[in-house]
């Protein structure tokens, strides 16, 4: 298994190197920095962005917007997920809203959010409507997968609703949320950036990208894309670490 994992990692590294070489060759052939900048110029732009005074501000503002919208979506997903199980009317009420969130393109949501709300609020709204349906449906699915015999036992022993929520529903939901925590957070982060590009708040990664776009600075845009990709990979690695810690008992059981 470890050998297979290392083989995949080596193949991934080789694929990245090949893509970078192809990128450099095509950029040299095109000889047009606006359409496709050269690799070394993008790396220099990354260095310039990292040393700017507002770099960490832009990152922190984008991450804080992501965290706030994600936490609101998560809390409401759990609350409405449990209520939907106990009172089906909530499930019927939320079904069309979830369908809207899943089917409407992100760009359309951003445009509508900019019309209806202030530009600082738009990224929060869009991120919430994208992430909430994923979390909500996951909560519903995880609760529905609870052993029916366990639920029948709760009825026999007349376990209170609060105790069922506390001792059964919340642990099950917690295991589910752990599995998709960072992947969903990463999605929210990308949506927030897209909202910032159009909303242009004072600070944010998306706002910086929009400024570079207006200046036709493709080098800096590519540099920001790489920075965002590194952050997304970091979220994924953190998610794997969290899952490994939470599900450690599974690995121990296999050994």
From TrEMBL:
Organism per entry: Clostridium cibarium
Keywords per UniProt: Cell membrane, Membrane, Transmembrane, Transmembrane helix, Transport
Broad class of the protein's primary localization: membrane
Protein name: ABC transporter permease subunit
Membrane topology reported for the UniProt record: Multi-pass membrane protein
UniProt xrefs under InterPro entries: MetI-like, MetI-like_sf
All residue ranges annotated as the ABC transmembrane type-1 domain in the record: 59-239
Domain of life: Bacteria
Database matches in SUPFAM superfamilies: MetI-like
Family: Belongs to the binding-protein-dependent transport system permease family.
PROSITE patterns documented for this protein: ABC_TM1
